[in-house]
Structures are given as structure tokens and as C-alpha cells.
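Pasting as-is:
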Amino acid sequence: MLAREIFGMKEGSYFDLEDTETPLRPEIAQLVLKDQRSLVVIDEFQRRSWN
């Protein structure tokens, strides 16, 4: 909820890692994030297993 509130105040990209439709999967995270030049919010990062 806090992440969405912060994101709502700025322009950028929001990724919710509990959402199965998020484009931020470990195998393509670098491709998705490398050209970002504005705020990036990654919600539920602590709950995601990256290995």
C-alpha cells in the first residue's frame, strides 16, 4: 500500500512481484530495468525468491 502511495505521487514504473502478469521476472529483469530513467517501485521484493 505504501509503495502504491509513493508511486502515485511520481511518474515512473511500478512492478508488483506478487502479480503473475508483472514483466519483472528474474530472467529478464535487467532488460526491463536498464533503460529506466524515472522512479522504479518494486513492490513485494522481499517476498520474491530470486534463485
